[in-house]
Amino acid sequence: MSRRGWVLFALLSVIWGIPYLLIKVAVEEVSVPMVVFARTTLGAVVLLPLAIRAGRLDVVRRHWRPLLVFTAMEILGPWALLSDAENRLTSSMTGLLIAAVPIVAVLVARLVGDGERLGPVRWAGLLVGLAGVAVLAGPHLSGGSAWAVGEVLLVVLGYAIAPVIAVRYMRDLPSLQLSAFALAIAALLYTVPAAATWPGSMPSDRVLAALVGLGLVCTALAFIVFFELLREVGTSRGMVFTYVNPAVAVVAGIVFLGEPITGTIIASFALILGGSVLATANRSADRTSTNTTEVQPRRQEDKATQPR
């Protein structure tokens, strides 16, 4: 990988590792709809002009139905659920639970017929990763935290389904246009809920900075860096950053919010990360264990989508 590729990789790993920290700070003083509205609006303000200038608006119009469904599964529901869950969960735990997305994505792709056959290595990865989720979520399944854990797991499911929608129904819609218009739609739909829950007084500088960071850094800048990274190193190598994000989320929560690091956090991190690596391994890993001939898959990550 070139020096520029490494810089982009490191930058994106941090940018998409800190949203959970910023959401945790933001929900201290503003409503969930306000958090989502601020993030989507700022992101759309930056990306929408770029998408319009790039053209292909006829393709956007042609795919408006799947675009709405994609927006619901990727932004409308997940970002609200994440923000609400972080009223009760630590940012580090939220980031670790979200790390299960690659594992669930493999299962979803397999169920809908878009994934390749799973050999023993990838099945082992699924089981290890799901065990990590169980280790992390288990102690929180009683009391008020159970609902929050359920919310994050719904986010994981939404994040796993959204790329399937993009690949199946919007293959000819460029990623920039997909991202920009999804953000714009979400911002419009959250305008009324945000206005209804507008804070009675100006939020603190800390919260305002978190909202701006979510919109401009973790959304708009993240997409720009992401697209540049994919151009520089390709899709397969570019997606490796998803394995680094959970570590950034945990470290950010510990350093900036004083969140505890426990044996459960460490064990679940190792299990989820290890499971994700194995579950998303290419077919050559399974060929060392089986001689089964597999059909070339339509890779979900070919459609670049979301900042998380």
From TrEMBL:
It comes from the Bacteria. Keywords: Membrane, Transmembrane, Transmembrane helix. Residues 296-308 have a biased composition (Basic and acidic residues). It holds the Pfam family EamA. The chain crosses the membrane at residues 7-26, 32-52, 64-81, 93-112, 124-141, 147-166, 178-196, 208-227, 239-257, 263-281. Residues 6-136, 152-279 form the EamA domain. Its main location: membrane. Residues 284-295 have a biased composition (Polar residues). One of its GO terms (cellular component) is membrane. It is a multi-pass membrane protein. Residues 284-308 are annotated as: Disordered. It is found in: Membrane. The keyword S-adenosyl-L-methionine does not apply. InterPro entries: AA-Vitamin_Transporters, EamA_dom, EmrE-like. Belongs to the EamA transporter family. This is Drug/metabolite transporter (DMT)-like permease. It comes from Actinomadura pelletieri DSM 43383. The lineage of its organism: Bacteria, Bacillati, Actinomycetota, Actinomycetes, Streptosporangiales.
